[in-house]
Amino acid sequence: MSNNLLELRGVTKRFASVRALTRVDLDLQAGEILALLGENGAGKSTLVKVLAGVHRPDEGRILIEGREVRLADPSEAQKHGISIIYQEFSLVPHLSACENIFLGRERRTPWGLLDRSAMRREARALLQRLGVDLDASRLVSQLSIAEQQFVEIAKALGRSARILILDEPTATLTGGEVKRLFAVMRELQRTGVAMIFISHHLDEIFQIAGRVHCLRDGRSVGIRPVSECTPQELVRLIAGRDIIHEFPARPATPPGPVILKVKRLQLEPRLPAVSFGLREGEILGFAGLVGSGRTEVVRALLGADRAHVRDVTCHDRPFDPSTPADSRARGIGLLPEDRRHQGLILPFSVAENVVITNLSALRHPVGGWLSRRRGESAVLRLVNRLSIRASSTRQPASTLSGGNQQKVVIAKWLFADCRILVFDEPTRGIDVGARSEIYGLMRSLTAQGRSIIMVSSELPEVVGMSDRVIVMRQHRIERTIDRAEEITAENIMYYATGGHIA
After folding, report:
1. Tens digit of pLDDT for each residue in 190-215?
2. What does the DSSP 8-state code read for residue 466?
3. Element of type H or E holding 157
4. Contact present, 154 and 162 (Cβ < 8 Å)
């Protein structure tokens, strides 16, 4: 008979032809804190949703105390004592902490009325069990993020949770709040509650977890006691996949002068300011974990989001855009992560999407009306130059593949003669064959003197394409890696998770 409280045996989950999980085995004992590690897209979220009853596994078994169970939906998972604390809380802001704890399972008097005094007593007892001094009558909207998290945990314990899954619980907490959370987790551990702890911060793993279970590409690649690991070994487990040699060689000639100088960019008064420069003809990579602030910095730089302080020069002239249109007027174009909704007008043709950034180029010199013919030859040259596979320039963008759609986005900024391009997740949703074409295009653009800022969550992409890398953590620049030989997956993960390499 197994001593494990929870077991997964050979769990596989597919979405169409994609395998999100492949024969995953996992063990969890009562009173254990197990760290679940892996890069973005490694399969952690899918595994959590399988345990939550959101997804049903296509193969494999789930056992609780040695008995196989079928988690048909979230309520079924809760009946078996499994509760998930997601990053986005499920609390109702205009209700009190007590009302949230008992939402959907309210206590009632023999006459059917709400027994508020009984609920307040039980809520106080649950919070005291956690060692939390919190007034359960306060509205959730008045609580700090950490206090809301404790209410979520109390809510789970009120449902007799024996297995608690905490998904990035420290992402928005201060250092002091993290210490309080860990104290609560240790108290739960002492009472026999088992926990799966998901975090990208290696220092937290060594503080709180007993074992680590690492996923990579939907497979288990390492299970071991934390006491037998070093930070370097964990980094290798997380980022250890081979990097496919699909990236063009870095140019032999050094980049040119700084053309975009960010002297001080501060998103909000409570956040630190960042400073960096972009050189002519280089690819400057922005790396960091989800929530590190890399995309927020770029959006604020381009005027897509407001900034508290923006002290920037572009080609030695002050640059303070109010909107992305202001950035385009200064020769800066954004290739957004969601190109289908933010980068293209899908019902429009290839040509219409390309010319929309620079309609003034279509104006007839006499009369000033727009002439489609004036742009046709330029669009056709860009289609041929970028190898956009379309039946004609009038083909709707919605009918193109992901790789060809991305090329159309590139083409529209070249039509506008943008000298600085910002790629946010440049190959997301693009097949492997088209990726190398996009990478080749990026290198050819920098060889022509254009400059690229690349935001990417794909470590191989950052390593393979960047001339320099800015690693962000908690909305600050943790490290700028300038030397090509130091741009490695291990170094980036180290700095992104708060580690420091001697």
Report:
1. 989 999 999 877 788 999 999 999 99
2. -
3. helix 145-158
4. no
Provide the H-helix boundaries in 195-252.
202-208, 231-239
Q: Are 43 and 218 in contact (CB under 8 A)?
A: yes
Residue 25 token pair: 């085995």
CA dist 470 and 466 (Å) reads 10
Cα–Cα distance, 313 to 319 (Å, whole number) = 5
Q: What are phi and psi of 213, to 5 degrees?
A: -130, 115
Q: Which residue carries 């240790």 as its tokens? A: 186
| Mean pLDDT score of the chain | 86
286: which 2 tokens? Answer: 């922005």
Please check whether residue 67 is in contact with residue 56, taking contact to mean a CB–CB distance below 8 angstroms.
no
Rounded to an integer, what distance in angstroms lies between the CA atom of residue 210 and that of residue 459? 27
Nearest CA among 332, 466, 338, 457 for reference residue 402: 338
From residue 226, alpha-carbon distances to 31, 142, 150, 233 in Å are: 16, 37, 26, 10
Tokens of 143: 């609580």
Residue 143: predicted pLDDT: 85
CA distance 164 to 5: 12
Please report the pLDDT score of residue 280 as a whole number. Answer: 95
Measure the CA–CA gap between 177 and 244, rounded to whole angstroms: 41
Instruction: Please enumerate in sequence order all residues whose Cβ is within 8 A of that of 366, keeping only pairs 6 or more positions apart, or say none.
Output: none
Residue 464 has pLDDT above 80, yes or no: yes
CB 277, CB 261: distance < 8 Å:
yes
User: Considering Cα of 179, then 171, then 196, then 53, what sign does the dihedral take?
Assistant: positive
For residue 290, list its beta bridge partners. Answer: none
User: What's the N-to-C CA distance of the chain in angstroms?
Assistant: 47
- State how far the alpha carbon of 448 is from the alpha carbons of 250, 360, 403, 436, 445, in Å: 14, 24, 22, 19, 5
**CA–CA gap between residue 399 and residue 357 (Å, rounded):** 21
Name the β-bridge partners of 406.
none
pLDDT at 364: 66
Among candidate residues 205, 159, 152, the one with its CA nearest the CA of residue 182:
205
H or E element: which one contains 155?
A: helix 145-158
